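Protocol step 4 of 6.
Sequence for 50S ribosomal protein L25/general stress protein Ctc (Aminipila butyrica) entered exactly as in the expression construct, tag removed. Do not edit the line below.
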Amino acid sequence: MDIITVQKRDTATKAKHLRRSGLVPGNIFGGMLQESISIQMDEVIARKLLRVKREGSKLRLALGDQVIPVQIKEKMQNTLSNEIVHISFQALKEDQKVNSVIHILLKNMDKVAGIVERILPEIPYASLPADMIDTITIDLEGMQVGSVLTVGDIPEFQNEKIDLQVDTDSIVLRINDKTRTVAQVEEEA
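Step 5 output, structure tokens:
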């Protein structure tokens, strides 16, 4: 799902009418574009896209006879009706750094003896499009109660091609003792 086909949107048609017709409105901005382009895509494709990609994910949009490299910049979704309201894409230029986020995924959470406290689920950064990273998976197996993982502890962030927008001492997660956490809650009550 690296190339998504979209169509130019007739801005005279209201977005509500588009959504009723099974289409999701959106726009592409920035990069090499002179001005923003209003687009639309099939709702089934938009749902599939948002299931496998996140905000900050890199992909390409096929619009007519051109293919535009983009990142998903923002998605608007009605949480009550689960309707996708709008998706914004930022066009990427090969030689221009772009701000994005890396999503931190956790593996083997069930093998941790304590409670995992996620502090930074996303890490903001800037890089050239070729150096963008969508996700980093952290394996929690073997991590003990009292463990603290900082941004600087993650090998992918020790890369000079990525400009972190948080301090390397920032805590990504820590593993707390279950009994101490329950005692703290009881104490507060």
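Step 6, annotate. The helical segments are 15-20, 43-52, 178-188.
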